[in-house]
């Protein structure tokens, strides 16, 4: 015979069930099991009952219905003569409910974890299905109330910035790399704020960061004995960006070498012709800026005079704006291998290629595929030995760094011409490949020699930056720590922020990130 379910089994520990009333909700009437209670003022036990009152506590649902517990709580008289408290109510205990609580501890734990995992509105929607009586504000108050910072002293941390609103307001995230958890969120990325936090944690011995100067300066001032290590991914990315800048500065020489300083509009598609006209306008703007720069006019004054931004003026003066055709992200990127295979197999009709792509899940328009087919057709019409249209600096940097067997005939002619006539880019490409190999294989001994070679090349500014941050770069090649875990925590932070529609305050974001760990 199966045993029956006694009410005392359903109720939380610490109370004795008197009866259960069944209606729209389940009501459990109970009383505490303790015969006495301790005074909160003098901690002396007392069994002298003064009066009684009823506390109503929401509890976990039972059989799909809401449940409440009505506990008949006693008031006691304090027997100690010197105690200022004469009458006190007995505490129900942390396993049942805290002082002034309207929910049992086990229901409060469910509410807290729902808010921690889902936030306000999503947690409220799920709580309705779970028959848990809690609104979204209750969820968030519970998350804030139970927020706790890690008690372990961090030894190795990663630090990086994250965006409240991209381009306008940024904060700082600090991560314990050993325990792989978020330590704190700071309201900004100012060096003073970071320095104050680091000064309060002198036990930190290693700081992994990006190559921005602000965090490095703050760490040097707050923790002069700590080892700073640069992030290896940022080192690789910085090297690629330095090569792209070298290509941009070399674009006039590249056009002269390729023989396309003037573009034939007859060989351009309609979209390319519009971009070429925009290039001509940018060239006129650049000439006006350079004319003022040659006269010694400061960048700030040029920007005020011409009405252009300081960033544009600075890039023109440095020779970083010379692309005829700006590269854009295309919806065809994922389908290019298949398209090129079909093209080589003999399918040359743009509409037919588009119909086949639609069957493979492509959502773009016929125009995109038609322009790609036009460019392919015109590139094949280039006579042997004659260079074609010069690609943008970004595309040319990619063409110079990929395998030669993956290039079309026109691209291979351009790359070969550039390698022959602009030898500085060949040297820069070799240096970038050597640097990235050095980072991958952690060859610390090669760093000084590489910097010396790069200083006399087109990568001189990148090498100068490495010299300024040489200790952190060297540590990146010897220490096992990097900022990959920090970037992962930033991804979690973005998920939580967007889950709360970008309206969460800093304390709530921190409570959810730290609590979830």
UniProtKB/TrEMBL annotation:
Domain called Transposase IS204/IS1001/IS1096/IS1165 DDE: residue spans: 157-251, 406-512
Pfam family, one: DDE_Tnp_ISL3
Residues in Transposase IS204/IS1001/IS1096/IS1165 zinc-finger domain copies: 37-80
UniProt superkingdom: Bacteria
Protein name according to UniProt: Transposase
């Amino acid at each position: 015979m199966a045993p029956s379910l006694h009410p005392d089994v359903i109720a939380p520990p610490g109370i004795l069930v008197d009866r259960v009333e069944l209606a729209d909700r389940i009501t459990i009437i109970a009383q505490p099991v303790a015969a006495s209670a301790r005074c909160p003022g003098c901690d002396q036990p007392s069994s002298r009952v003064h009066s009684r009152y009823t506390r109503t506590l929401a509890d976990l649902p039972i059989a799909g219905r809401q449940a409440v517990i009505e506990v008949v709580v006693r008031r006691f008289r304090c027997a100690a003569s010197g105690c200022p408290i004469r009458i006190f109510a007995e505490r129900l205990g942390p396993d049942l409910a805290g002082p002034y609580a309207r929910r049992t501890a086990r229901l409060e734990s469910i509410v807290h974890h729902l808010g921690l995992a889902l936030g306000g509105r999503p947690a409220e929607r799920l709580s309705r299905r779970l028959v848990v009586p809690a609104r979204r504000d209750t969820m968030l108050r519970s998350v804030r109330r139970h927020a706790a910072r890690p008690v372990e002293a961090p030894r190795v941390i990663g630090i990086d910035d994250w965006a409240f609103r991209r381009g306008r307001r940024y904060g700082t995230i600090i991560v314990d790399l050993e325990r792989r958890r978020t330590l704190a969120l700071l309201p900004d990325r100012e060096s003073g704020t970071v320095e104050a936090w680091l000064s309060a944690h002198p036990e930190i011995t290693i700081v992994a960061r990006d190559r921005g100067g602000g965090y490095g300066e703050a760490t040097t001032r707050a923790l002069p004995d700590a080892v700073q290590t640069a992030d290896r991914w940022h080192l690789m990315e910085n090297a690629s960006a330095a090569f792209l800048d070298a290509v941009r500065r070399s674009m006039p020489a590249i056009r002269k070498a390729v023989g396309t300083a003037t573009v034939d509009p007859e060989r351009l598609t309609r979209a390319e012709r519009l971009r070429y006209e925009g290039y001509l306008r940018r060239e006129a703007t650049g000439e006006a800026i350079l004319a003022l720069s040659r006269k010694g006019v400061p960048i700030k004054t040029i920007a005020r005079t011409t009405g252009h931004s300081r960033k544009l003026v600075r890039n023109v003066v440095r020779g970083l704006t010379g692309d005829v055709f700006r590269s854009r992200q295309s919806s065809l990127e994922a389908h290019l291998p298949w398209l090129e295979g079909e093209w080589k197999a003999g399918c040359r009709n743009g509409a037919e290629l588009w119909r086949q792509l639609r069957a493979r899940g492509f959502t773009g328009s016929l125009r995109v595929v038609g322009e790609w087919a036009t460019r392919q057709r015109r590139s094949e019409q280039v006579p042997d030995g004659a260079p074609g249209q010069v690609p943008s600096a970004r595309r040319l940097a990619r063409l110079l760094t990929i395998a030669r067997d993956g290039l079309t005939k026109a691209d291979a002619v351009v790359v070969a011409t550039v390698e022959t006539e602009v030898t500085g880019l060949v040297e820069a490409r070799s240096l970038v490949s050597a640097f990235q190999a050095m980072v991958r294989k952690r060859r610390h001994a090669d760093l000084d020699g590489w910097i010396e070679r790069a200083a006399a090349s087109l990568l001189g500014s990148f090498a100068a930056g490495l010299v300024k941050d040489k200790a952190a770069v060297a540590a990146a090649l010897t220490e096992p720590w990097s900022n990959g875990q920090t970037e992962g925590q930033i991804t979690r932070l973005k998920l939580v922020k967007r889950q709360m529609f970008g309206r969460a305050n800093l304390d709530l974001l921190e409570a959810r990130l730290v609590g979830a760990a």
